[in-house]
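TICKET: design request
STATUS: open
ATTACHED STRUCTURE:
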């Protein structure tokens, strides 16, 4: 009995899922905790980032930090993945079930309402999956409290002008327009603000609209005093409806932008797959890969092919040249089969990013990428497309070589 149970425990394989967010300090603790637990259990582990619809509005610094965090996890031996979803908890649960995850590691935020909406939901619906939570030991930096790109103050000035325009149009027509019609016009201003400038300018527009409607159209005029108590309900409803409409429109717009990014991703892959399908030689594959990357990204590119134990350039951008150090980095990438360079371990000071062109059975070459701007960091979306390009090219090379045998 004892020997049988020991054998069963040895055969059991753990699969860990570490879920990180844009909170850099907490994400680093989660990755470190996942690394230690994976080493202890001799388990496979994945670091997952769920992109919410508003991710496209995050500042460049936040996106760069996320790319660096995923690179850090890969340097520790983890697989990394990013998925899109409006509900973080539901996406985590769905991902865990599809990938046979045995343990999920989540960050435990300071704000209780976040705990209720993410961590608690995962705990409630995790079933047989173990859930570990890691707390945040230090408060986030003040500069990171606002993750989204700041709106211009002009947006709020424009919102004031929009409310003023509605008021100027409606005030002379008070005897003609029904109060309900005036309220609808103010709601139209709120909707316009949400579509053009986003959530918070729209909320500001709703607040100013309520105040303006009170001053200009509710007796006594030009006073915030309300003679009819029923008007207070009108103000509350106008403000709440304005906020709800603003939130729904902003979320719909963010989802539309995210869907457009996904469509662009699919389109770029489709264009490359068409070119690779038409390629009959490895040189044609290298040329197709080069042209597609240059068409969609501001990068200089070199496609290196494996020849024996060495590498040779099949195609490259005009300004792309590799020095002796970069050739050594490319050779190391070919040997290990891992991404290196451009702020990734172990060549963090490299100016180039090296991505292997590999399948499950062989490594056929290296894709060398150099951003046009030296301070540019590859985003998560760009990294995902780049690896898709490399996989498609490797499959095409394998097809051509199989035909030549």
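STATUS: resolved
RESOLUTION: sequence designed for all positions
ATTACHED SEQUENCE:
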């Amino acid at each position: 009995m004892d020997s049988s149970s020991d054998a069963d425990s040895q055969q059991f394989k753990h699969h860990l899922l570490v879920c990180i967010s844009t909170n850099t300090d907490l994400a680093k603790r989660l990755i470190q905790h996942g690394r230690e637990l994976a080493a202890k259990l001799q388990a496979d582990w994945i670091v997952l980032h769920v992109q919410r619809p508003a991710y496209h509005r995050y500042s460049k610094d936040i996106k760069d930090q996320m790319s660096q965090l995923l690179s850090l996890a890969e340097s520790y031996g983890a697989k990394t993945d990013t998925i899109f979803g409006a509900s973080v908890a539901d996406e985590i649960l769905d991902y865990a079930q599809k990938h046979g995850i045995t343990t999920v590691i989540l960050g435990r935020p300071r704000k209780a309402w976040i705990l209720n909406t993410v961590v608690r939901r995962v705990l409630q619906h995790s079933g047989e999956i173990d859930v570990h939570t890691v707390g945040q030991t230090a408060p986030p930096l003040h500069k990171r409290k606002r993750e989204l790109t700041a709106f211009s103050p002009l947006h709020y000035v424009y919102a004031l002008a929009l409310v003023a325009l509605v008021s100027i149009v409606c005030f002379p027509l008070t005897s003609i327009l029904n109060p309900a019609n005036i309220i609808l016009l103010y709601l139209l201003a709120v909707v316009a603000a949400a579509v053009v400038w986003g959530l918070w300018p729209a909320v500001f527009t709703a607040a100013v609209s309520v105040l303006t409607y009170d001053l200009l159209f509710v007796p006594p005029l030009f006073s915030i005093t309300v003679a009819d108590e029923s008007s207070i309900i009108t103000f509350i409803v106008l403000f709440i409806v304005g906020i709800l409409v603003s939130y729904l429109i902003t979320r719909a717009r963010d989802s539309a932008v995210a869907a457009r990014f996904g469509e662009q991703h699919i389109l770029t892959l489709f264009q490359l797959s068409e070119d690779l399908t038409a390629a009959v030689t490895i040189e044609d594959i290298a040329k197709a890969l080069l042209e597609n990357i240059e068409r969609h990204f501001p990068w200089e590119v070199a496609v290196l092919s494996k020849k024996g134990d060495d590498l040779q350039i099949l195609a490259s951008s005009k300004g792309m040249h590799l020095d002796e150090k970069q050739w050594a980095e490319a050779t190391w990438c070919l040997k290990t089969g891992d991404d290196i360079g451009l702020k990734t371990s172990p060549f963090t000071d490299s100016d180039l990013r090296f991505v292997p062109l590999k399948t499950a059975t062989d490594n056929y070459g290296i894709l060398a990428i150099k951003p046009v701007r030296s301070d540019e960091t590859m985003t998560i979306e760009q990294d995902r497309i780049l690896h898709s390009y490399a996989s498609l090219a490797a499959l095409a090379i394998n097809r051509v070589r199989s035909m030549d045998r």
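CLOSING REMARK: Residues 38 and 228 are 66 Å apart (CA to CA). The chain has three domains: 11-144, 153-252, 279-404.
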